[in-house]
Amino acid sequence: MYFDSLQAVLHMDGHGFYVWAAYAVTLVTLTATVIAPVLRRRRFLRQLAAQLKRAQGATAASARRIN
Amino acid sequence: MTAPGAGQFCMRLLRRQLLLAVRRPLEIGNPLLFFAMVVSLFPLGLGPSPQTLADFAPGVLWITALLSNLLTSDAVFRSDFDDGSLEQLLLAPQPLYLSVLAYIGAHWITTGLLLAIVSPVFALMLNLPGQGIAALMASLLIGTALLSLIGGIGAALTVGLKRGGMLISLLILPLYMPVLIFGTAAVQAAVTGFPAGPYLAILGAMLCLAIALAPVAMAAGLRISIDA
Amino acid sequence: MSADSAGAPVLAARSLCLERGGRELFHDLSFDICAGQLWQIEGANGAGKTSLLRILCGLSRYGFDGQVERHVPLLYLGHQSALKALLTPRENLAFHVSGDSRYEDEKIESALSRVGLYGYEDVASHTLSAGQHRRVNLARLLLSDAPLWLLDEPFTAIDKAGVEELEALLVSQVAAGGSVVMTSHQTLNVDCDVRFLNLTTGLVA
Amino acid sequence: MWPIFHKFGSPPWLYSISGAILRWLLPITLIALITGAIWGLLFTPAENVQGNSYRIIYIHVPAAVVALAGYYVMALAGAVSLIWRMKMADVAMKAAAPVGAAFTFIALFTGAVWGKPTWGTWWVWDARITSMLVLLFLYLGVVALYEAFDNKEAAGKACAVLSLVGMVNIPIIYKSVDWWYSLHQGASIKFTGETSIHSSMLYPLLLMIAAFYALFTCCLLLNMRAELLQREQRTQWVRKLIDKEVVN
User: CB–CB of A41 and D222 under 8 A?
Assistant: First the structure.
């Protein structure tokens, strides 16, 4: 390891703020990029399942609605 | 009776577009008026010092020309889309590539060409040194044609959208950047006593590339917009 | 005139399928349109008449399955008049964007007077009514020599006399060996065979 | 070649294969990212001139490289969708745009944060930064155009045209911005570290570049899966999938 202490890791000779800010923002952005489609897919599946359930419950009603 | 050749049809479209523009003189006048007004805003913002104005003049004139071109490019295909003429144009047996070139040609004549012709007046108002004026006109002549071609791509892609006006600037402004860079560079070179020729040549090369490729993109964009 | 005597099709549709918004508008639709035929496409609102016509003329290029073969030049009249309000009827015809050949002045004049626009040749089109706009398009039918007409609701906004005139036009087009495909809710009053394509029932008759 | 091509055109196949790929690619990517980041942050020596601030290179350069490559992936997918009318290429193109925009944003942000301790300013109108900004605009343009269309199939085609136009323009924009910057360059600011990077610094960088590529692929696949479901929601295979996935 290059640094001696946790203090040194965080401080990085005065550059700590910049380095950690860059890594933090990257982490947040990448996490959002990965999570967003996963959430979208899950939400969509749930929506569609509910929709199917409704359609099964009221086939006639849904047929009327489409027409 | 057979369908007219592509060239003949092109000329007919060009005449039609010009006639339409002449019938509505305000549409021709608007971009020029916009140009005049925005140019007159800059001294208010930058201060009236002749030296400051002269320093900024090439950039100011070019950015204003670019913006006024941007504002009009949305309308290139808009009215034809609204009244169904565009459908007829797409069904015409002549190549769409040349037809859209005619549209862009008419657009350039009614905006860029006129802008280039009146630009010396505003150049003098902004205290642009006299030796830069020829370069300004030449660069605007070539550059606005390029802008019209690029703007046409954006117009073709957004013509089917109701809220296309703002979107088109997002789509095409990044593509305007090289034109702006070499347009101002040509004027600046002429002002500082260097030859403007190389920059104009680069603009010309880009124009050739745009003439070759932009109509393809426009034709594809129009077909997509009509189909949507 | 029957399909058997008509020879090669001018337009052939092969197993067209179209789905819009999750609903199948038509499925496996195949037909041949031959010279000398008049086709009327029927169906309830939203049955896909306009969509089918746009597929047939080539304005719709994706979003459907199947093939359309077009063998002759065609003339398409859509819902919109394609007239420029700032141009006069004469200029609208002379500068038309559909790529027809340039019509001579006398021809345009006689066509315009035949559709009842005599005296309106040189007034700006925005002063004309919607029905008169349709009539300018009828003049296009008179001028054009395209063997295939695709007409989308051509009777809209046209008065009684105009309807009769249009029907006569359709008959003369068919009699001259041309073909017409049109959408309409109206019963045609023409003395030639009319073939029906009902999109609601899917029947070709 | 053609059978594979056709397979790629089949949504259920693509959905299941992408799920299988993600199952092992995603963990590997995460491990590589964490390893690379820890290696670069803690175990490499400080750079001679820039000190510790250079450690940003381990995210800045990979993000920039992948952002640019991502645009080409998007444009190529657009070309395939236009030429061969392959719907899955459409899906890939649509999926690439937001991911590419995110990577471009990271490259820009880390560049700005890196610039402050190194050059003393957050933003320099440097050729690379400027063209990166233009790249972000191009990505956002594609995203905005897609959202503006109601008809998603038309949206895909329009975006394909736009991304191809952008691809032709990227080299032109980059070259002209580069030239423009060299003309106006006052104080000479150069990126250091790249020409004479020490191998102890290079290996974690290479690892990070590979990891970012893998991450881009993961995000692309995840987005494609979500998009696929939405587009194919009325088909039989999606219905079956729902029974399987939601009931559990």
Answer: yes
Query: Which chains form contacts with chain A, at 3 or more CB pairs under 8 Å?
Result: D
- Number of CB pairs < 8 Å for B and C? 86
Indicate whether D12 belongs to any domain.
Answer: no
What are the backbone angles phi and psi of residue C67, rounded to the nearest 5°? -125, 150
Predicted TM-score of the model (pTM)? 0.88
Nearest residue of chain D to residue B203 (CA atoms) = D176
Rounded Cα distance between B62 and B43, Å, is 15
- Residue B219, pLDDT > 90, answer yes
Chain D partners within 8 Å of B170 (Cβ): 137, 140-141, 144
Give the start-end residues of each E strand in chain C.
9-20, 23-34, 38-42, 64-70, 74-77, 148-152, 179-183, 194-198, 203-204
Q: Tell me which long-range contacts D213-217 makes (C-beta under 8 A, separation of at least 24).
A: D213/D62, D213/D66, D213/D69, D214/D25, D214/D28, D214/D29, D214/D32, D215/A30, D215/A34, D215/D29, D215/D33, D215/D66, D216/D66, D216/D69, D216/D70, D216/D99, D216/D100, D216/D103, D217/D25
Domain that holds residue D126: 31-42+49-189+205-247
Q: Are C86 and B4 within 8 A, CB to CB?
A: no
% pLDDT > 70, chain B: 99
CA D174/CA D180 separation, integer angstroms: 10
Domains in chain C, ordered, with CATH?
1-72+147-205 (3.40.50.300), 83-145 (no CATH)
**Number of domain units in chain B:** 1
| Contact: B182, D161; criterion CB under 8 Å | no
Strand partners, C13: C31, C68
Counting one residue from chain C and one from chain D, the pairs whose CB atoms sit within 8 A come to 6
Other chains touching D, judged by 3 or more CB pairs under 8 Å: A, B, C
Q: Provide the domain limits for residue B166.
A: 6-227
Residue of C nearest to D234 (CA): C22
Nearest CB among B167, B224, B228 relative to D144 is that of B167
Mean pLDDT by 10 residues, chain C (205 residues): 57 83 78 85 82 87 82 84 81 78 76 79 80 83 84 83 84 86 81 79 69
D82, D145, D159, D164: best to mutate for the B interface, most B CBs within 10 A: D145
